[in-house]
């Protein structure tokens, strides 16, 4: 049964990581967010990125919240997998 949880946790975190990376890449293609895929990625990742963005200092046009989110998600994934 723990093998199922490990696989589920890995899959969940991989989906979140790819969604954040996808949002970063698509933001260069569709900065206004008019495409449906941009809206879906925004809905998936905004609950993770918004709290991080509110804590980070403003750095002009550069948004470092995806980088911080990726690092935190990888740390959280390893902590959860070690606990299981």
TrEMBL record:
InterPro entries: CCB3/YggT. It holds the Pfam family CCB3_YggT. The chain crosses the membrane at residues 7-29. Keywords: Membrane, Transmembrane, Transmembrane helix. Belongs to the YggT family. This is YggT family protein.
């Amino acid at each position: 049964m723990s093998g199922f949880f490990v696989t589920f946790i890995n899959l969940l975190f991989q989906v979140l990581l790819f969604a954040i990376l996808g949002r970063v890449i698509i933001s260069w293609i569709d900065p206004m967010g008019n495409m449906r895929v941009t809206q879906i990625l925004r809905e998936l990742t905004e609950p993770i990125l918004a709290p991080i963005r509110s804590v980070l200092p403003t750095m002009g046009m550069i948004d470092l919240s995806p980088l911080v989110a990726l690092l935190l998600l990888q740390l959280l994934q390893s902590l959860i997998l070690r606990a299981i």
